[in-house]
Amino acid sequence: MAHEHKLEIFRGLWKFKSNTQKIWGVLAFLTFVTAIEVVLGIYKPAALTDTYVLGMKLLNWIFIILTLVKAYYISWDFMHLRDEKSAMRRAIVWTPIFLVLYLVFILLVEANYIFEIYKDGFIKWNF
Description:
Blueprint lengths: L7 E2 L4 E2 L3 H25 L2 H4 L2 E2 L2 E2 H20 L8 H35 L7
């Protein structure tokens, strides 16, 4: 039995008549998000580069968020995650999130240990 692809994006806000129109709509969305990233990367507004949030520049947070939006949308639409059951979607999305958080935790703990060794230990800062 053939499975029909949904000809809509953004949870049904935009509906298309054919697969070709849908591909162009997806291309337009991804191009728009990429253009925002490129413009911000070229101009680097002072308001975004001078503002720090959680120890990182606001501009970097914007880049990370826009990149995650694109990655999520590509996997949602092109990998057909929207057609899967919710358990499968959660397994695919949450597993890398937990693994990345675990990696960040390990890196921070180890970095703190190395910092303390260099600060209080017998090894000098020579770099």
